[in-house]
Each structure stands twice: as C-alpha cells, then as structure tokens.
Amino acid sequence: MRAVSSTALTLALxxxxxxxxxxxxxxxxxxxxxxxxxxxxxxxxxxxxxxxxDSLGFTxxxxxxxxxxxxxxxxxxGSAEVMYQTYASVEKDAxxxxxxxxxxxxxxxxxxxxxLDSVLAAMKSSKTVMxxxxxxxxxxxxxxxxxxxxxxxxxxxxxxxxxK
Length: 164
What we know:
By secondary structure, this protein is α/β, with parallel strands linked by helices. Helices cover 26% and strands 34% of the residues. The protein has two domains: 35-104, 2,3-Dihydroxybiphenyl 1,2-Dioxygenase, domain 1; 106-164, Signal recognition particle alu RNA binding heterodimer, srp9/1 (2-Layer Sandwich), CATH 3.30.720.
C-alpha cells in the first residue's frame, strides 16, 4: 500500500468533487421555499377567532366547517399566517400514525413584530406565561398562551441603548 500525502489527498478530493457534482444522475434539484405555515391542533377553533382577529388584527382567510363547528381555519396578516385544525378533523384526515401524535402538544410559536408595545396592549386579556424581558440575544419579548393552550412569544429587536 502506497502512502499518500495529505496535500495530495486534499487536491485529489477537490478535483474529484466537481466531477461527481456535474454528473446529472447525482445532481440534486434545489428547492425554493415559498412559505412555511404552522398548523396548530386544537380541541375547538371558535375561541381562537377573537384572539387572532380582534386582538392581533389578523384576517380569517380560510374556514372549513364540520357540522355546526369549524374543523379548520387560517389567519393571515401580511405575509404571516397561522392555521388551526381540530383534533377530530385530523383524526378523520390523517393516517393513524400521524393523528395519534397530534395530541402531544402544545406548540411554541416565536413571532417577531415591529411594535411590541402595541402587542402588549392587545394581549392584556390573554394569559401571560412569560413576562416582558430583554433576552441576552438582543430581543425584547414576552409570551402568552392562546385560548387553545399553545404558547406564543412576541419579540422585537432591541435598538442600541433601548434595553429594559
């Protein structure tokens, strides 16, 4: 067995890499992510509507009824979107392996906003689970629990010298 210097090995690997990447059979297609939207699973959707629409100013963009209740809803504000689906709807729609895991929650959302003070005012009647603070990573933030029990942290970058 012949010894190869680490420089020769590195050079050989560098030269071989572009060749293997140019092989169309091995080339990976790139993906352009258009949007990621969380879907939170809940017992019932109706109590969430005032939270998102009245308090936070989101618009209800999708509504899927299930009898006299809602099975699914989407709320949107600008490019931000969140969806909710009931456990009963998931159990009807998803395979058992997926639907059985749905009840493991709650989910945690982290939302960066441009005016934390207005969100604080809007969330006065919501259950605060983390009081306002300035985190070591430079974000002024607080967290509430939505009517379904999911946790939502609202955060705004702290400008130089504006830490609380």
